[in-house]
Amino acid sequence: MPSFLLLGAICIFLFSRVPPCLPLQKVHVSKETIGKISAASKMMWCSAAMDILFLLDGSHSVGKGSFERSKHFAITVCDALDISPEKVRVGAFQFGSMPHLEFPLDSFSTRQEVKAQIKRMVFNGGRTETGLALRHLLRRGFPGGRNGSVPQSLVIVTDGKSQGQVALLAKQLKEKGIIVFAVGIRFPRWAELRTLASEPQEQHVLLAEQVEDATNGLLSTLTSSALCSPAAPDCRAQAHPCAHRTLETIRELAGTAPCWRGAPRADAVLATRCPFYSWKRVLLSHPATCYRTTCPGACDSHPCQNGGTCIPEGLDRYHCLCPLAFGGEANCAAPKLSLECRIDVLFLLDRSSSTALEGFLRAKAFVKRFVQAVLSEDSRARVGVAGYSRELVVAVPVGEYQDMPDLVRSLDGIAFSGGPTFTGSALRQVAERGFGSAARPGQARPQRVVVLLTESPSQDEVAGPASRVRAHDLLLLALGSEAVRAELEEITGSPRHVMVYAEPQDLFSKVPELQEKLCVRPRSGCQAQSVDLIFLLDASASVGPENFAQMQSFVRSCALQFDVNPDVTQVGLVVYGGWAQTAFGLDAHLTRAAVLRAMSQAPYLGGVGSAGMALLHIYDKVMTVQRGARPGVLKVVVMVTGGRGAEDAAAPAQKLRSSGISVLVVGVGPVLRDALRRLAGPQHALIHVAAYSDLQYHQDALIEWICREAKRPVNLCMPSPCMHEGICVLRRGSYLCKCRDGWEGPHCENRVLRGDAPKARGSRQDPAGGLHTPGSQHLQWPGHPGS
């Protein structure tokens, strides 16, 4: 007979895997209450005299992993027990095929000893002979116990899959007055646990997989018997709805398949369709009641304001998850600030595609928070809001809303638009119509401030429009990401007017800083003065890279006070350490933005510094006509140094001063070195700064010193503009260069080639009043008197 005829049916067994971490008991309460249950489990204490015996299932059906979790539950319970010979005694049995005494109740007298012994218990395996363990206890009692003179509690931790009868034995134990807790492990058989447990079963059936919940349930039951007590008097045990889940195997029809059965005739086979089934392991849920103790929590008083969510951390601590607009403040409260000055503020929000919707909403939330924190009924400040991408839209005119809640609600109507980031165009329009007719009747115009919020570089030019805004006597402040710092400094004209943040959520911490800046009237430098300005930075090892970075920030801030272009101010930078290096010369960068970028990229050199070498480098290779210096223009060297390596600098500094170059020394350090005093020369040419972090507070003094120097008369021949040892001669508001043999040109810059016609000797006066001699050139500098 063919082998397929032997097939009577096709059965397919499918067992779906159920992860052990799946909750097999669920208490139907809020997350906040679950947190309170967990916290209260650590706040209860049992000091009444009683004997507690742990009976741990160590059979193969439990497995080694679940056995370790059983031990962890027993140890957690011990943390709440006042273990001593007179109060709480603890012992332990392990059972599998046979019961095994791990340690009697009178073996250890401290909690640490009991916990250590439980940790040392080794999984034995074997069958689940729960009945044998119960019969052993019925015959011999609690080993090392007090013979029933104190309350006795038996804590059985098992999966409830006993291979014998347990109901009668459990009943006999309970009739002897023993309190029996049945604590499930792994996928427990709840029906058997309820058979084992004392009445009421809801208070004595627990699940060890959820350690803190099970510990709370056990201690709550003992508390009701006055054997334990909660740490706080307001703690209460309450009934909560919960569900017990059981893992069961069920059979369901999966389909039919052809099969062959016998027929009345011996030589015939009957073909038909037979059903086949699949077997699945499923979780079935059974409603129950769980009694748990909870204590009043730190979040019960709802301390988190402005829509914040309170997250408890124990019973007496919490933290608040705050909305974006209130992150960083305690309890999500708006900071209590105020504006004491009369001021009109226009917030300018970037709503372009580069900033994206998230960035725009963050900027709106910042304005809301600022308004709520700063404005009050008696505030003298007025606020408006505008947005821009391609065009400027004044959504809330300055002063339109006097009531703060109305102003906050109006911000919700400002929509995101997308489009290009034309910050320059927006600034130009702000200067023209940003404040409209916001002047207050019968009063002088208040200070007007534009606060720009952007995280994206502009797609159009910003320097010109920003200058136009400042020319309208508007103060520009800016908040943005670190990526646009340089552009924001160019827009505002000073790093002090820029507030940057590394992470987006850090924007909201800038509210107090903005409040401080709004009422400070900016001091203007001598921006219109023509200056050739060289910054000399000490980049030696004695300074270090971190302090060098603070120097860079300081000179960037100073450079922003000047109108950088070839007709007004030129800026160069020299660094020195083991050698002197020109980071960039006077004619290298023609705009302020380019100068700022180049200053940020200046190298830190290290090595042993020589200030004298660096000053001579400036004299020979930087402050010269061929390197961009302009005759008839104030020339200034600002040296920032820690003072070491300045011993050889006094003579080179005097050489610069004798050539008409002003030298200012900014000495940093707690003690002013004598070498710096000698280097500085005149006392007014020295600024002493205690620490590198304090450099920012001395910017005004530096600018004022340069402005004073700009008032001094300028000698066109100092330093000499003539090259190759040519002699500079002043002549009626101009000068000429008398060149040595072999050189010619306005500054003696061109070599005379052999074979050229010989030059005439003697000098002559030209119609313009210039003196001409062989090899001499007469110059009149544009813009100088006499030109």
From TrEMBL:
Residues 757-787 are annotated as: Disordered. Residues 296-333, 713-749 form the EGF-like domain. One of its GO terms (biological process) is calcium-independent cell-matrix adhesion. One of its GO terms (molecular function) is calcium ion binding. PANTHER family: COLLAGEN ALPHA, VON WILLEBRAND FACTOR A DOMAIN-CONTAINING PROTEIN 2. Forms monomers and multimers. This is von Willebrand factor A domain-containing protein 2. It comes from Heterocephalus glaber.
